[in-house]
Give the backbone structure.
Amino acid sequence: RKEVEQDPGPFNVPEGATVAFNCTYSNSASQSFFWYRQDCRKEPKLLMSVYSSGNEDGRFTAQLNRASQYISLLIRDSKLSDSATYLCAVNKDTGNQFYFGTGTSLTVIP
Amino acid sequence: GAVVSQHPSWVICKSGTSVKIECRSLDFQATTMFWYRQFPKQSLMLMATSNEGSKATYEQGVEKDKFLINHASLTLSTLTVTSAHPEDSSFYICSAEFRAGANVLTFGAGSRLTVL
C-alpha cells in the first residue's frame, strides 16, 4: 500500500467553481501535513499547512481528518491561475522526511 | 525567504557517464537535505536523506552505490548519478528544511537529467 494516495484527476472546472481534493495516508503516526502546488516542469511550492482545526488562506481551505486519515484541500472561486498540479505531503512518522501523493491536476477553464 | 539553489537545471549525458547535481541552501544552514526524483506524471519519490557530516539515509529500493550523496558542509549537498542509464532520466529535486523542526520544505528548482 502506498504511503499517500491521491486522485490524479484531471479536474477540469470553469472559472468561479469550487473544487475539492482529497488525500489519504497510511501511517497513523504522521504528524505534519501540507499541500504543495507544482506548475508544469517546475519544483513544488508550499501552498499551505494542514491542521485538524482547519486552515484557511483566502480562497483555500485545508482540513485534516485524523480518524479517517485523510487531508483535503478546497479551492473556492477558482481562477485561471489556479491551474496546476496539487500535491499532498505527509511526513514519515514524526520526522522531516515526507511522502508525496501523485498530485491532482487542475485546469480552470474560462 | 529561504532559497535552495540547484545546479545544473538540466543535463544531457551519454549512457555510462556520471552526473553530479549540486544543492545549496543560500541563506540558511541545512544539516539535513532531501533528494527526490520525479518521473513524468508521477509523484515526487523520496530517494534519500542527506546528513551533514555523516552518511546519507536511503529509502528502500534506492541503490546507494548508484546514487552517491555527499553533504560536506551545512550549505551543500551533492547527488552523483553513477554510470547513468536511460532509465535514470528523470527530474531530480532537492529540498531542505528552512527552520529545524518546522517540517516545512523548501525545494530547489530541480535538475532534469536525460541520459542518451
About this structure: Chain B has no helices and eleven strands. The mean pLDDT of chain B is 91.
